[in-house]
Design a protein that fits this description.
mainly alpha, 3 helices, 82 residues
Length: 82
């Protein structure tokens, strides 16, 4: 895949995620993908990959933050008992 396609897909994915965050439309990326698919299947595939990676990273980050938060809450509860 060319650097141009990767760069454009990454930028478009970032912008799409911002729109999704602001509007609450969590499937907006599908619409963008359809528009891309009509013009460039290569860019569509790269874009969807970029979106999936970002969505997966968000989900994993939420998991990590929750795990740490739960751990700290347990530590505070133990400290209060002592």
């Amino acid at each position: 895949m060319s650097d141009t396609i990767t760069t454009l897909a990454a930028r478009l994915a970032e912008d799409t995620m911002k729109v999704m965050d602001e509007t609450g439309e969590d499937r907006f990326f599908v619409e963008v993908g359809e528009v891309l698919g009509a013009a460039s299947q290569s860019l569509e595939e790269a874009f969807l990959t970029e979106i999936r990676v970002r969505m997966a990273e968000r989900k994993a980050r939420q998991f990590v933050v929750k795990k740490l938060s739960d751990h700290r809450s347990k530590l505070k509860a133990i400290e209060k008992q002592q």
